[in-house]
């Protein structure tokens, strides 16, 4: 190439400048070609996979790939020029710094695309907005980590000691963690709930304190529960993770119920058992199979205690169904003189 330039009358420093311009032009053309190839390949695989992920990756990588080619071309062009060592090192350092932060930006944009796609899938599958609430926090943490690592790499390249910077970041993180221990604990518990999914919005759950309610929303710090009284209970996520929670809506809505009924020992126990097993069958919300069954749970000279077991179609009907059964038992036992009315 130099002989060709010399043959057309370009010599000395002019050759270096022309070669540098040729390298820059070649890098520009290479960037355009690679971007075009990437676009075609990404669109092809996106159509084959029937997914928009390929097009998203292409939109993320095309422009950074073009600038990366320009940075490489700029570095090679600088080598073609007979620059002073200090000037060449300065240009080299600028190009290296831009390249590192460009790589960090690529990683950040890829992470955003993957997280956004996963968050959409989780929200569609579970109906929970928890992932959406976590996204801003996770985005800030990941952004800080990626660009902090890029800064450390650049400082290390220029010979600066990063030990003190890393130590300061560690101490600062520890101080923040200790100051917000409870908040972080609830956030981590919320993430565990999101991953483990012991319950979803709309499920009816029973807490260890025997309180029941429907899950309204699973948040980043707490979960909102609508109680049977119509009030909203806000429960820290750490309490839900560390205590027993009964999901009455999983794996299906139907629910087994048991109630206790006492009959004086001197009464007809066979008749009492027959009435107890007959009454639930007349209530629409009670499932026919398995059939209601009455068992003697305790027997003494004063009373016989029956345990009536039956299944209902939904846990949300529990109070209503039990009330109707108790009311009918009272009426029938009074009619059959199984109770003394006292």
Which descriptor suits the 3D outline? elongated
| Total helical segments | 10
Q: Radius of gyration from the CA trace? A: 36 Å
N-to-C series of helices and strands: HHHHHHHEEEEHEEHEEH
Q: Largest sheet, if any?
A: 5 strands, antiparallel
| Strand numbers in spatial order across the main sheet | 4-3-2-1-5
Instruction: Calculate the mean pLDDT score and round it.
Output: 77
How many domains would you count in the coordinates? 3
Work out the number of β strands: 8
Could you tell me the strand content as a percent range? 5-15%
- The low-pLDDT segments are none
Structural class: alpha+beta
How would you describe this protein?
With 342 residues, the protein is α+β, with helices and mostly antiparallel strands. It is built from ten helices and eight strands. It folds into three domains: 2-162, no CATH class; 193-247, SH3 type barrels (Roll); 255-335, Alpha-Beta Plaits. 61% of the residues lie in helices and 15% in strands. The strands form two sheets. Strands 4-3-2-1-5 form a five-stranded antiparallel beta sheet. The protein has a three-stranded antiparallel beta sheet with strand order 6-8-7. A hairpin with a 3-residue loop joins strand 7 (293-299) and strand 8 (303-312). Helix 2 (13-49) runs antiparallel to helix 3, helix 3 (53-80) packs antiparallel against helix 4 (85-126) and helix 4 packs antiparallel against helix 5. The longest helix is centred in the first third of the chain and has 42 residues, at 85-126.
């Amino acid at each position: 190439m130099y002989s060709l330039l010399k043959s057309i009358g370009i010599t000395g420093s002019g050759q270096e400048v022309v070669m540098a311009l040729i390298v820059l032009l070649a890098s520009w053309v290479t960037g355009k070609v690679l971007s075009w190839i990437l676009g075609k390949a990404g669109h092809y695989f996106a159509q084959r996979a029937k997914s928009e992920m390929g097009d998203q990756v292409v939109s993320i990588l095309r422009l950074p790939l073009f600038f990366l080619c320009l940075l490489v071309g700029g570095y090679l062009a600088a080598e073609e020029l007979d620059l002073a060592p200090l000037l060449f090192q300065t240009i080299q350092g600028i190009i290296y710094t831009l390249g590192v932060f460009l790589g960090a930006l690529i990683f950040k944009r890829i992470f955003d695309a993957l997280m956004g796609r996963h968050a959409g899938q989780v929200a569609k599958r579970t109906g929970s907005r928890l992932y959406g609430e976590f996204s801003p926090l996770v985005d800030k943490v990941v952004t800080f980590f990626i660009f902090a690592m890029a800064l450390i790499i650049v400082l290390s390249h220029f010979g600066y000691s990063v030990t003190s910077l890393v130590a300061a970041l560690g101490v600062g993180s520890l101080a923040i963690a200790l100051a917000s221990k409870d908040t972080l604990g609830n956030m981590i518990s919320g993430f565990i709930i999101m991953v483990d999914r012991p319950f979803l919005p709309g499920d009816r759950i029973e807490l260890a304190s025997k309180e029941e309610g429907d899950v309204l929303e699973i948040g980043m710090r707490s979960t909102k529960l609508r109680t049977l009284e119509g009030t909203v209970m806000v429960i820290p996520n750490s309490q839900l993770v560390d205590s027993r929670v009964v999901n009455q809506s999983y794996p299906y809505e139907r629910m087994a119920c048991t109630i206790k009924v006492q009959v004086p020992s001197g009464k007809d126990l066979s008749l009492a058992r027959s009435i107890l097993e007959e009454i639930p069958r007349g209530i629409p919300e009670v499932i026919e199979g398995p059939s209601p069954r009455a068992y003697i749970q305790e027997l003494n000279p004063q009373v016989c205690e029956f345990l009536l077991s039956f299944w209902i179609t939904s846990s949300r009907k529990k109070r209503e169904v039990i009330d109707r059964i108790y009311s009918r038992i009272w009426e029938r036992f009074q009619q059959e003189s199984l109770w003394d009315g006292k």
